[in-house]
Design goal:
The structure holds two protein chains of two kinds. Chain A is of the alpha/beta class. Chain A has helices spanning 12-29, 34-39, 90-95, 98-101, 117-125, 138-147, 163-169, 194-202, 220-231, 256-270, 276-280, 301-305, and strands spanning 42-48, 53-59, 62-69, 72-80, 107-111, 130-135, 156-160, 174-179, 204-214, 234-240, 243-249, 284-286, 318-319. The relative contact order of chain B is 0.23. The chains are: A alpha/beta, B mainly alpha. Chain A binds chain B through residues 50-51, 136, 161-162, 164-165, 168-169, 188-190, 193, 195-196, 295-298, 300, 302-303, and chain B through 31, 34-42, 98, 101-102, 105-106, 171-178.
Chain lengths: 322, 206
Amino acid sequence: MRKCCSASSVEYRCARFRRAGLASLLVGLGLLVQPIVAVAADLLEMRESLYNNIFIFADADSVSMTFGQNKRYYTESNMKLSDPGALTVDYTRYMTLGIAYAPKLERIAEIGLGGGRTVSYLGAALPDTGILAIELDKDVVDLAKKYFKFQETARLRAVVSDGRAFLLKDSEKWDVILIDAYRGPFVPFHLLTQEFYRLVKSRLNPGGVVVQNIEPSTMLFDSASATLKSVFPSVDLYDGGGNVVAIGYDGPSLPQAELLARAAKVQERYKLRYDLTKLAADRRVLNRASGKILTDDFAPVETMRAIEQKNEKWKEQTEVPR
Amino acid sequence: MQQSHLRGILLLAMACILGFALMGFEMLGSRYLYPYFGGGINTWASLIATVLVALMAGYLIGGALVDRTMSPRLCGALLVVAGLYLFTIPLWVDPLFTWMLTSIGDGMTGITLAATALLLLPLTLMSVFTPFAVRLLLVSVAFGGRIVSYVYGVSTIGNVLGTLVTTFVLVPSFGSRALTMIFAGVTIGCGIVMMLSDRFLRGADR
């Protein structure tokens, strides 16, 4: 579960300084009382893994996993302690919408575990579905278990591997593939190219869907969505509050009534906490993809990411479904 | 201008160009490896180790060859072979890496073998150039230290430029396959120049 947007990030030094300064001042005045302590997030653990600098922060009622990069923290996952089953980050609710599209729900894969809240939610809600989380960083899996109540079961497993390498090696097929692989602010380029999406498509059962979290505030969004559209004839976009969730599938675009009917059927069967029919109502159809298509040969994601654009601009490439 | 000066300029220019291409290939190597083996510190470790092994082997082989032959034509021929190998990379890299990933895996062995197949042979042949350049420029033992320092200094400038320009300018502007072929062409060009100027580089005038 990952969210990347600089607005939610905090400058390291600044944050530390402020906390330390405030705390010592209050101690000095004899004013250090509970509510104020609760406002500041405590660092529970910092771990330097093979791939990331991972920070686990907690306040009175939430715990979050962040990756530190460029002196900023990028929130990868968040969990409410008093309500662990809630999906607190908006876009992760839309990530679950993939299950409304797929004709069957026997097997779901997710690339990029984070704290594992999305797969845990799906695992709890879908009693007959096998779910596999493919996570590059072993320490992320460990910390998800330690702080985010991520538990492996017979039906919900995690494997440590690069997502693309795993799909290449393992030819099993999936009904839904969720992709939420951010390293701090970046999606590694090899998870955004046409070759990658073709591989994903080859690992989907008939009618299967790919669901990807894409950050819309830079030029890279246009290219990522255009590349997805070049492999999947139909791409729907959902505004997940800062992040956009893209759902790609084969065949012509579903009529909205059909999607709502399918969502209602799945909702009726599994009684999901976040109502699929309400989520599906926010659908926008990508029909004017304008970005340059990314390939393994040409994917300057770092350069494209540096060119910012207005957050809402992506909507110009879409229309409301009929 | 004296022939020996011209010889020095030509060899140092080639040292710089080949240094540029060598590091350019290392950076491009990462673009070939990422899709199959991921983009972590492990991929970089295998890539850097492979390039260093190539440099070592090239220096050893080059030193032994140049003492025996003093033949710029031989060195040029090796550069042409290196360039031809590199030129063909885009043709075979995808099937080979797919096979390696599925049969060997994405651990250290798999990544290092992939990096080796990609770069070891051609970069070894390219770094054969350095001892040749030193020996061909060495007219007197009295200048030995300076000759070595010029050749290494200039080729390292090439390395630095190759690293930065390839990453920040060339990869974002061209595809990595096209760049591979351009760099391979430049390497072949250096080899042909060396073969054609064999007599001149030997210093037939001295």
